[in-house]
Amino acid sequence: MTNGDILTIYTDGASRGNPGAAAWAFVVVQDGSIVESQTGYLGRATNNVAEYHAVINALTEARKHTGGTVVVHSDSELVVRQLTGQYRIRKEHLAELHQKVLQRAAAFKAVSFVSVPREHPCIRIADRLCNETLDTYGGAQRRHD
To answer: Cross-referenced PROSITE patterns, in alphabetical order (predicted)?
Structure first.
């Protein structure tokens, strides 16, 4: 299998306050180039919820690029360890999001989840997208709290 057969995704979620204004983002890399990136605003949520939404949205969009092998990278150790079964899920709302990830992952030949440091260049891009989204939408949200 060549690297071209593998779709690589980098995800990030952010909240200003925990809970607070929250956003998610992902970057899709194929053959060494970014082929897609997206971000979205969640409203008021926790950082962990935002991290899960990043993975859910990334896997939804990944179907446009492949049905094969996907490697999802995240700087959220909690999310990665819950998705790989290393950590139990104790909160019902996270269990529901976990289930959504697994449902989307079933559409691919193989999906793996990898923890990477927040300094990774593609994670930094996803983080920047989250912050841009929070700058755009988060300010309006804070005024209504």
So the answer is: RNASE_H_1 (PS50879)
pLDDT tens for the chain, 145 residues long, are 345 579 999 999 999 999 999 999 999 999 899 999 999 999 999 999 999 999 999 999 999 999 999 999 999 999 999 999 999 999 999 999 999 999 999 999 999 999 999 999 999 999 999 999 999 996 544 322 2
Q: Is 32 left (phi over 0), alpha (psi -120 to 50) or beta?
A: left
109: tokens are: 């030949």
Domain housing 123: 3-135
